[in-house]
Structures are given as C-alpha cells and as structure tokens.
Amino acid sequence: MSQNPASATPPADGAADETDVEKTGLFDSLNALPRSLKVGTTIVIIVALATIFAISRDFYFHWFEVHTGTINETGTYYAFWSGFGSDIGEATIVVGIAAAWRHHNCHVKGCPRIGRPVPSTPYIACPKHHPAHEGAKRSVSIETIIKAHQEAKKENKRS
Prior knowledge:
Elements: H1 16-24, H2 26-31, H3 35-55, H4 57-68, H5 78-82, H6 87-104, E1 116-117, E2 124-125, H7 142-158
Antiparallel strand pairs: 1-2
C-alpha cells in the first residue's frame, strides 16, 4: 500500500521547511513570497539599472547609435541596412523555423519530435506516439506500411 506524501507527518525538528523547498522547487518558493516584496525588489532593480545607465549614458548611447546604424555614415540609412537592419532577415528565418516546429511538433506533452496528423483527430503524433506506428522509434517494417496502406484503401472504399 502506497502512502500519500501529503498526509505524511512532517518531522518535528524543523527539517520540513528545507525538504519542502527542495521538493517544490525555486519557482514555487518564490511564489510563496508576498507580492509587495516582489514588486519592491523589481522596482529597486529597475532604479539601480536606470542609475547605472544614466551615469554612463554617453558610452551606452554611442554604442547604441553605432550598432543600430543611426550615425550618419555615408547616407541616411546606409549604416542601418548594412548593420542592424540586415539582421531582420535572419530573425525572420529563426522565427519561421520556430513557428514551423511549433506547428508540426508532437502533441504529447514534453515530446519535441516532429509528427504527422493522426487520422480522424485534431492531433499530431510522432512515430513514437502515433497509434498506427509499430516497432522502433524511427524504423518501420514493410509489413507495417503494407498493412496501413491496405487499411487506408478499405476506408476509402467504404466512404
């Protein structure tokens, strides 16, 4: 008979706090903090970063101008399109790849594999999780392919 961890009695020596933090993780222990403490800490960090930026404004502002191409080098926008602006195409490619992966990845929670639609459902499943897939992760025998093809032909004749 298994015991429910929630109903177990905690040790009386105060070690329960340490084990609770270890079990729940850092984010759960941060969620236990009062909201006013989290907001206050965030405001202090923002003010500190703004102060550092204001003290060394000339250095950071010049760096920003150079790297975004807003300093008039040879023409109005030449520096932008040959510098910072040329990264727009690269960012588009990265975002497109991420969107395609997100659209075609397996719907099983935590599975990063690319999948195919499961017939008669709105789900996408990889070879490991697909209900019609038998065998190893990526290998399919010829018998499995023939069986799936014959079943598909029978379905088409019935429709």
